Amino acid sequence: MTVPTSHRSLGRAAGDDDGTTRSTMLDVQGLQKTYYGSGQAVEAIRDLTFTVDAGELVCVVGPSGAGKTTLLRCVAGLLPPTAGEVVLEDTVISEPPAGMAVVFQEYGRSLFPWMTVAQNVERPLKEKRLPKARRRELVGEALEAVGLADVPTSYPWQLSGGMQQRVAIARAIAYEPHILLMDEPFAAVDAQTRADLEDLVRALWQRLGVTVLFVTHDIDESVYLGQRVLVLSGRPTEILANVDVDLPADRDQLTTRSAPEFTRLRGEIYELVQRAKRGERPSPADPSH
Amino acid sequence: MSVRHALRTVVLALTLPVVLVAAWWFATADSTSFYFPPLAEIVETFQPTWLEDPVASSRIVTEALPSLGRLTVGYLLALVAGVALGVAIGSSAKLRAFTEPVLEFFRAVPPPVLIPILMLFAGIGTQMKILVIMWGCIWPILLNTVEGVRGLDEVLRDTARCYRMRRTSMLFHMIIRGASPQIVTGARQALSIAIILMVISEMFAANNGLGFTIVQFQRSFAIPEMWSGIILLGLLGVALSLIFRAVEWPVLAWYRGYRQAQRGGN
C-alpha cells in the first residue's frame, strides 16, 4: 500500500493528546546540502523533509549516487547541512548527539584495530563514564546478542567480515542509543552472511525497541527490513516516495521473501528507483506519483 | 617447536657477529701496526680502561653514564615534543601547509653544524649537548608523526566522533594509537641519530663523556684504549636497540597482526 505522501505531510505525531501515538524521534526539515569545492558548487541534497517515529524501522533506498551517505552523515551530525535542520528528540543536531549510534558500511575501518573486540564495544561506554560493573554487563550482553560471546579477547582483524560487522553492531547496541543509523552496513558481506545479519537487525530492533534508520541500495533488503521505505530521487536528492511495508512483523527469509505482498512492494520500489534513475523528480503538487 | 625456533633465531642473530669478531681477531693477531693493534690487546685493555675498581670511579660511571644521561633526556624530550607537534600539525591541513616547507628545511640542516651556534646561547655544558641531541632527534619523530596522524582512517575518525570520544581519549586512544606505527618508525630512526649526536656533541667542548674520552685517547695515542671505547659505543648501540625493541614489541603487537590479516594471511 502506497501512501502518496508529500514530504511535508508526514506530520509530527508528538503532542497528539490521545497518548497512544508514538512520539517523533527524528525530524528532518528542509535538509539541503551543497558541496563547495574548486570553485564549483555541487548540490547533493536539494530538499529532504521526513520524520521517523520512536521505535520505527525506516529504510532509505535510492539509486547509486543519490546522496544516501550524505543524508546519513548530516543526520549523524558529522556533516553540517547547508540549509534546513535535523532535530533528534527535540534538539537540533550540530554535532553527533548522545542518543545515537552509527554502523558504517566499512566495518574493517570503523573498528579500532588496536583494541580487542570487548575493548571496541566498551570504549564508547567509557566515554559515557559508565561504572565498570555496568560496562562489563553491557559488553557481555551485547556480544551475546550478536552471537560473539566467545571472542571478546580477539582482535577485529582476526574475525571474518560478517563477524566484524557483528562487533560494530554490538558496539552500537551496547551504547544503548535511542536511534541507530546504519549506512549500507551489509553491502560488503557475502549473501548468506547478509541474510543472517538482516535477521539479526530485525530481532534486535524488536527486542530493544530502538529506532532504526537503515540506508541501503538493496531494494529487497529495504522491503524485508523496513516498516516503511523512503525512496530517494537522483541527485540533487529529494524524497520521491514513502512506501509503507505492510508485511507481518514476524519475518523470515523464506516465507517473507516469497509472499505476494513482498513481491508487489519490491516491484513497486524497483519501479520508483528506475524512475529516479531516469531523473524523475517529485512535483510539488503530486510529490510521489 | 618454539624452543627450537627461539634457538634458531639466536643462532642466526649471533653467527655474523661471531664471524666478524673472529675475522678481526685473526686478521690483527700478528699486527704490528700502531693504529691497528691486535684485538686481543684491545680486549685486554677494555676492563682496566672502563671497569677498574672501584666501579664508582671507573670510566663507565664517570664518562659513559653522563653521556647516556644526556642521550636519554635529549631523546625523550624530542619524543614528547615531536609527537606533540606532530599531532598538532598532522591534525590541521592549514598548519601543515604553513609549516611543512620550514620543517623540511630544518630537517635538512645537519645538527652538528649547529653546535657552534648553540654554544653561543646554551654554553658548552650539558644543556647544549641535550639541545643538540634533541634537535637532531625531533625531525624524524615529528615528520613521521605528521604522516601517521594524517593517514588516520576517515571512517575511524567518524566513528570516534559518533561515539563522542572526549578530547583526551581521542588523543590517546585514537590519534596516538593509530599513528603509533609511524611514530615508532620515527623513534627508531631518531635513536641512531641520538647516539651519533651524543658522541659528536662531546667532541667540540666537553670535560666528560664517551665521545670526549675516545677523542682524548686518540689525541694521546692510547690507541688500544681508543678502540675499546669504540667497541663500548657499539655495544651501547646494541643494548639501546634491544631496549627499543622490547618496548616496541608489545606496543605494535596489534599492528603486526593487522598487517598480516590485510595481506590475507589470516
UniProtKB/TrEMBL annotation, chain B:
One cellular component (GO) term of this entry: plasma membrane
Record keywords, A-Z: Cell membrane, Membrane, Transmembrane, Transmembrane helix, Transport
Transmembrane annotation, as ranges: 73-93, 105-124, 130-149, 193-215, 227-247
Domain ABC transmembrane type-1: 64-248
Main location: membrane
One GO term (biological process): transmembrane transport
Organism superkingdom: Bacteria
InterPro entries linked: MetI-like, MetI-like_sf
UniProt-annotated location(s): Cell membrane
Membrane topology designation: Multi-pass membrane protein
Record Pfam families: BPD_transp_1
Family: Belongs to the binding-protein-dependent transport system permease family.
PANTHER family for the chain: ABC TRANSPORTER PERMEASE PROTEIN MJ0413-RELATED, ALKANE SULFONATE ABC TRANSPORTER-RELATED, MEMBRANE SUBUNIT
Name of the protein described by the UniProt record: ABC transporter permease
